[in-house]
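Design request, tokens follow.
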């Protein structure tokens, strides 16, 4: 009888957790840019106001460095970090003794780094497990504003995929058991700026794009085994834009944004469906889908935004079929937020905001300087009719999702924020340089 009662209790607890969190991407934040890859959650209702003393559910120290977005699945939060162990290889000169080899004077580390996958309890922030995927000395340095754990993990609720770039790709189940790993080789990022493109999971396939100063490529793996299904070389230089995968016009398209061209690959065959040039250098913002069009933009060495049809084939560069273009005020690092037909983006990495109609490209408001934010690296997110924009100095501006610029709140935390926020349920997760915050209303 006791066993029977325990079994019923366990079932009720499991059902309660399922109803609370929702066992689907819609109720979670399972990848970079959220359930729809637009920065929007349809189910979240995060707080509007917070501070170090208000609406902080929990705040935990995070070892090491990482600018990847944490992801959320049911009662677990996952994030990546690279921890400098301080253990030196004396055969490699100290960075201060290495000659200048690039514009930013970025040097190779000579200490071992632990590339770590962390799983936290969503309710308390307590660490449930950590796995050191590999310990090694990075083969190259990274810009001071980047790090060695800047790609966001992704999950389908069964397996977790953690991509450390040149340090490898690692697949775990959600209890931390390793399923497989792959070494996909070393990238040669120009000026040693570091890596950062996140993996994308779709229909049992994992998409990895690597655009750098060496031989760039796109590779699609079997998500269960890690085996390569196909790989194509790409004629591209540095780019960090995470691809967008969507079923459209009878094919599953993998859309990659880069300086040479925006390209659509057939997920099944690897063949190019269409391509379109027109972006500027160092493309970082990820594409977003609006109806039958994909919107791509860049903001380094000029500004560019294009709404490209998903229905075409071949090279459509300069075609009248491109719905609209803009050449002002587009972002360098942050990705745009597409929220029910309104497209929000900042200029370069500055706190200058523009909102346009995603269907027509017509300006709704801006560009205008917003709040007291400093430079912005994090991408904006949206939920419950609100837009959240986080600056590097710890300020987050909350706006009404509206055709008029309407501020609702400005909030401050004592950390530096380069990672983009994650939303799930009534919580907002902000990963800073030192801490991971879980924000929830009525947490005095």
């Amino acid at each position: 009888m006791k066993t029977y009662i325990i079994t019923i209790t366990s079932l009720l607890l499991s059902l309660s957790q399922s109803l609370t969190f929702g066992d689907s991407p819609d109720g979670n934040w399972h990848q970079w840019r959220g359930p729809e890859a637009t920065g929007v959650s349809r189910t979240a209702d995060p707080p509007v106001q917070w501070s170090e003393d208000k609406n902080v559910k929990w705040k935990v120290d995070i070892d090491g460095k990482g600018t990847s977005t944490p992801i959320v699945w049911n009662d677990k939060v996952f994030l990546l970090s690279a921890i400098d162990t301080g253990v030196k290889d004396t055969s490699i000169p100290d960075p201060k003794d290495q000659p200048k080899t690039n514009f930013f004077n970025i040097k190779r580390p000579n200490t071992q780094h632990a590339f770590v996958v962390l799983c936290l309890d969503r309710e308390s922030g307590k660490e449930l497990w950590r796995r050191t995927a590999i310990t090694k000395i990075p083969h190259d340095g990274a810009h001071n504003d980047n790090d060695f754990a800047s790609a966001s993990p992704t999950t389908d609720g069964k397996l977790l995929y953690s991509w450390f770039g040149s340090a490898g790709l690692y697949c775990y189940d959600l209890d931390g058991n390793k399923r497989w790993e792959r070494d996909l080789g070393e990238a040669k990022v120009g000026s040693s700026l570091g890596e950062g493109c996140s993996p994308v999971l779709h229909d049992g396939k994992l998409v990895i794009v690597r655009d750098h100063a060496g031989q760039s490529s796109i590779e699609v793996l079997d998500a269960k085994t890690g085996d390569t299904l196909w790989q194509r070389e790409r004629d591209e230089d540095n780019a960090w834009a995470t691809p967008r995968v969507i079923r459209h016009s009878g094919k599953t398209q993998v859309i990659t944004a880069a300086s040479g061209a925006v390209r659509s690959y057939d997920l099944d065959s690897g063949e190019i469906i269409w391509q379109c040039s027109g972006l500027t250098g160092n493309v970082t913002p990820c594409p977003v889908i609006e109806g039958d069009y994909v919107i791509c933009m860049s903001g380094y060495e000029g500004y560019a935004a294009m709404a490209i049809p998903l229905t075409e084939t071949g090279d459509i560069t300069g075609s009248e079929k491109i719905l609209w273009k803009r050449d002002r005020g587009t972002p360098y690092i942050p990705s745009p937020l597409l929220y029910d037909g309104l497209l929000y983006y900042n200029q370069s990495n500055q706190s200058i905001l523009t909102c346009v109609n995603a269907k027509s490209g017509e300006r709704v408001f801006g560009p205008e300087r917003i709040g007291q934010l400093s430079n912005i690296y994090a991408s904006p997110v949206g939920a419950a009719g609100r837009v959240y924009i986080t600056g590097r100095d710890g300020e987050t501006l909350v706006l009404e999702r509206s055709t008029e610029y309407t501020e609702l709140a400005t909030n401050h935390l004592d950390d530096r924020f380069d990672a983009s926020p994650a939303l799930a349920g009534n919580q907002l997760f902000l990963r800073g340089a030192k801490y991971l915050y879980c924000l929830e209303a009525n947490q005095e």
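Comment from the thread starter after seeing the answer: thanks! The longest strand covers residues 76-88.
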